[in-house]
Write a structure and sequence with these properties.
CATH class: Alpha Beta
Largest sheet: 5 strands, parallel
Distance between the termini: 15 Å
Number of strands: 5
Strand order of the largest sheet: 2-1-3-4-5
Number of helices: 7
CATH superfamily: Response regulator
Helix content: 40-55%
Radius of gyration: 17 Å
Length: 171
Amino acid sequence: MDRLALKHIFTRMLAHRDEQSPPAVQQIKDAAVLIVDDSRTIVRALQLMLEREGYLTFSAADGVQAIAMTKRQRPDVVLMDVVMPNMNGFEATRALVNDPLTAAIPVIMMSGTEQVSDRAWGIRLGAKGFLAKPIDKEELLGKIRSVIAVARRMQERDQIAAISPTDALVR
């Protein structure tokens, strides 16, 4: 990354450091969302909902596909169902969170059951959120915006931390 780009990131971080709210919605547009669910109906409904809001979407039918696609496509967020064939959402979330290549990509888990134990287990494994099906559109959009904004700020912070103090002052 060139110095001008790093300076721009550093300037943006300083401008936003005192803000409590996430960046405006338009800054999240064109973010990529991987939808992981074995139900084609649910996948299609979520795709339509998210694409109308300006998100790019792609899908996987199980945890094994989700891990491969996350490594290949590098989405901004993963929406992960819990109950799926081959590898369930808990196993896939654990694999994504523990892999250095995918650990920074937030996972939001979804489940048709509202069991407190599922929610607690998902968060304990590293999911950044947990939504009950049927998915509430506003809750989903709010959670996606929130986790993407946090992930982007963390990425910017890490990039700034990698800059030497003299590099940050270069005009």
